[in-house]
Amino acid sequence: MKKILQLIGISAVIGLLYFGFTTYPKLDLISGFSAKSIASGHFIDHRSQELIEQGDNDINLIDLAQNTIDEKGLFATASVNGVKERKAIYREGLGATLINDNFDTTKPYLVPKRTSSKAHLVYPYGDAEQQDTVFSNIDYDQLNRTVENAFDKKGQKNKRTRSVIVIYKDKIIAEKYDTGFDKNSKLLGWSMTKSITATLFGILEKQGKFNIYQPAPIPEWANDARKKITTNDLLHMNSGLEWEENYGVISDVTKMLFQAEDMTRSQLEKPLAFQPNTHWYYSSGTTNLLSGILRKQFRTHQEYLDFWYSALIDKIGMHSMIVETDMMGNYVGSSYGWATMRDWAKFGLLYLHQGNWNGEQLFKPNWAKYVATPTNTSNGQYGGQFWLNAGARFPDAPKDLYFASGFQGQMVAIFPSHDLVVVRMGLKEDPEFNFNGLLGGIVRSIKK
């Protein structure tokens, strides 16, 4: 018995040491992720703490955190058994921001000015409900079976789809939500926000205010080899800048999202690892750097805050959308865009119509071609802050498919050859979730 107790004691010590070396350094990130997720989900979409913990925070290690919500103070906190407590505050118009001990919560702050337009029009150009439209070339039985199959049956947690919408020729032909979600639920797009960020450069280009092929306007690079990096290189994720995009360890991206005060500088301060336009590498830091470049195009912070909404988001009626900011007031263009599924679909329709929104051209038609053209060295996977099917990632979908994509399987898929947009929001991504089956099944249900 004594030896057994000794072995148990030794095992416990080894376990504690293992936890200390492997998990303790991550506690700041675990608490940060959890606090931010709780604050955003609760104050933006009015979800209960329980629903967020069982859904968004049901991730290995993140589920170690204990969370609290302060309704009156508009903030959430999280820690792991009282260790490494983090706090995320909610501010109307800016969403939730993960803060550090130096952040002054009493300091006044700016918020974007929002406008509402043409809400009386029928969706997608307004929010009025469409009349049912039956297309003779659609196999509705197959379409509905395909959409139904994207969702878990009662008691399952394999596919974890929250919502799917299918829009053909501007008409909703299928729409389904999981329990607890509906057409008014605001859903986090994660990296689909990157595609929003890129679109703003297309709008500035059409306005004659920006040239993506010139060197990126970053004074810190003026006297070294980085001065050759163009905004085009940044949009294509092939700047050659050093970066580690790994969410399973303490890396550049986790330190940026859960520790940095100014996320626009995380990639800016990195040295070159490769010559520009020779090495594609996915980097959320690059997109936040692009957000910083956008901010410098305006004389004031207020103009920067307003532009995202007045030029794009509110312009196409994505009135549910909110893009959250970092501690310095920069939009987190890499990751933190929230909107209803129908509003995410409007963004896809804007690209399906090559920048034309109900008669107004927001960006040039060739911008849609630009973002859907494969980046050098990406093997047909990536374009201008959009993912592509040019390399047949989804073999049962057409190769002209391109899509905004986010963590845990968020997708706005654009099918130019089929006049089709599909949005799927959930908590599982490819290959755990069968996107090929969903997209291929929908395409097969439409007879050309």
Topology:
Layout: H1 2-22, H2 27-45, H3 49-54, E1 66-70, E2 75-80, E3 83-91, E4 95-99, H4 140-148, E5 161-168, E6 171-177, E7 187-188, H5 192-206, H6 231-235, H7 252-259, H8 284-295, H9 301-313, E8 322-323, E9 337-339, H10 341-352, E10 356-357, E11 360-361, H11 365-371, E12 387-388, E13 402-406, E14 410-415, E15 420-426, H12 435-444
Antiparallel strand pairs: 1-2, 2-3, 3-4, 5-6, 5-15, 7-9, 8-9, 10-11, 12-13, 13-14, 14-15
Fill in the keyword field for this structure.
4-stranded antiparallel beta sheet; 31% helix; 6-stranded antiparallel beta sheet; alpha+beta; 12 helices; 15 strands; 448 residues; 16% strand; single chain
Radius of gyration: 22 Å
Please report the total strand number as a whole number: 15
Helix content: 25-40%
Label the structural class.
alpha+beta
Name the helix and strand elements from N-terminus to C-terminus, one letter apiece. HHHEEEEHEEEHHHHHEEHEEHEEEEH
Strand line-up in the sheet with most strands: 6-5-15-14-13-12
The main sheet comes to: 6 strands, antiparallel
CA(first)-CA(last) distance:
76 Å
Strand content: 15-25%
Rounded mean pLDDT is 94
User: So how many helices?
Assistant: 12
- Shape summary: globular
